[in-house]
Amino acid sequence: MTVTSDLAPRRLRDIFGTFASGLTVITGSTADGPAGFTCQSFASLSLEPALVTFSPARTSTTWPVLRKAGSFTVNILPAEHQHLAGQFARSGADKFAGVSHAASPLGNPVLEDALAWIDCELHAEYDGGDHTIVVAAVRHLSARQDGEPLLFFKGRYGGITPAERLLEAAG
After folding, report:
1. Which of 67, 86, 119, 123 satisfies CB 3.0 to 4.6 Å to 135 for a cystine?
2. Edge to edge, what strands does the sheet with 131-143 contain?
């Protein structure tokens, strides 16, 4: 392993990309209709009180709209929703075109077949360099009992292989 002090953005992206993360789509209802964006920097933060955190890029044009709405839903994507991760990552398009969704208790879009969803209200924001660190208070949530997560690793989408299948393949 080569040690480096190279902190160039490309090098950081390559190294940080070795940490596999799940993918979410943060959605909300706005005066102009539903809005949302793909976000991989999501994590649970606290159980008491129930808080989550995510970090949209400062260049995001969607986050300011959702911030103004005050509430939003974190949709955790299942493996079969790779296409939605790409669709909600694009700028300037109708991100909800062809996307089935229902209203959460707070009135935000819950994507059909999401692995789980978490309905939130904005709790706090902090400076995070080229990102904003958002802390959100959890108000409602639900999860499917089946399904596998969509993962992002080294710039590619992937999934997990259950241990049982690995053992079967090994033989």
Report:
1. 123
2. 33-39, 24-30, 71-76, 116-128, 131-143, 51-54, 42-46
Q: What is d(CA 99, CA 115) in angstroms, rounded to the nearest whole number?
A: 15
User: Cα–Cα distance between 81 and 23 in angstroms, integer?
Assistant: 10
Angle at 57 between CA 51 and CA 62, to 5 degrees: 85
What 8-state DSSP symbol labels residue 128? E
Look at residues 43, 150, 133, 141 and name the one whose alpha carbon lies nearest to residue 88: 150
Average pLDDT score over the chain: 91
End-to-end CA distance of the chain: 32
At 82, which helix (H) or strand (E)?
Answer: helix 82-89
Contact (Cβ atoms closer than 8 angstroms) between residue 104 and residue 121 = no
20-67: per-residue pLDDT in tens?
889 999 999 999 999 999 999 999 999 999 999 999 999 999 999 999
Task: Quote the tokens at residue 56.
Answer: 């949209």
